[in-house]
Amino acid sequence: MISQKNIFRTGSSFVAIVCLLNIISCNPGSKDTIPAVNDNSMSTEKSVSQTSTPAPTPKVDSATANANTNTAGGTHANASAQVVTIENMKFNPATITVKKGDQVTFINKDVVAHNATETHKAWTSPMLQTGQSWTFTPEKTSDYYCTVHLVMKGKIIVK
């Protein structure tokens, strides 16, 4: 016969393990915890070195909003929009190539909140809840990551 005491021990051990895994998977990071290398990119091009510039003030739109309604930089006559979907704890595609002046829209289709932050803090999105999007115009090639989930990395190549 299984005693109530053994059930309680097994149940509380399970809860403790689940809590620990949850804490490990949702590391909030810090300004000192910046990934050095974009290891999920297939690009072989080198990143342009970044200078310290203030982060653009973002505007958060719903995922169904028009992608060109929220810009953080200038556009050119032939500007186009690129979309990066955040889903299953990944940026998809992990590497995109855009022309100077093109816009990039991040859409969070994951079940948890994420953001996108350039590794040298030149730009950062707000925390995007499920269904929210953020659009900006990148000025330089840059690596980026999610400050909440440090394993999530991506790269924007500006040509």
Q: How would you explain this protein's 3D organization?
A:
About 28% of the residues have low confidence. The strands form two sheets. The protein has a five-stranded mixed beta sheet, with no helix packed on it. A four-stranded mixed beta sheet has the order 4-9-8-6, with no helix packed on it. By secondary structure, it is an alpha+beta fold. The longest helix has 22 residues. It is globular, with a radius of gyration of 19 Å. It is 14% helix and 25% strand. Strand 2 and strand 3 form a beta hairpin. The protein is built from one helix and nine strands; from the N terminus they run H-E-E-E-E-E-E-E-E-E. Keywords: Copper, Metal-binding. It comes from Chryseobacterium gotjawalense. It holds the Pfam family Copper-bind.
Q: Summary?
A:
The chain has 159 residues and is α+β, with helices and mostly antiparallel strands.
Q: Main sheet: which strands, in order across?
A: 1-7-5-2-3
Radius of gyration: 19 Å
Tell me how many strands there are. Answer: 9
Helix content: 10-25%
Biggest sheet details: 5 strands, mixed
DSSP strand (E) fraction?
Answer: 25-35%
Could you give the order of the helices and strands? HEEEEEEEEE
Question: Could you list the spans in which at least 5 consecutive residues all have pLDDT below 50?
Answer: 29-58, 62-76
Number of helices: 1
Q: Mean of the pLDDT scores?
A: 72
Distance between the first and last residues' Cα: 70 Å
Structural class category? alpha+beta
The geometry reads as globular
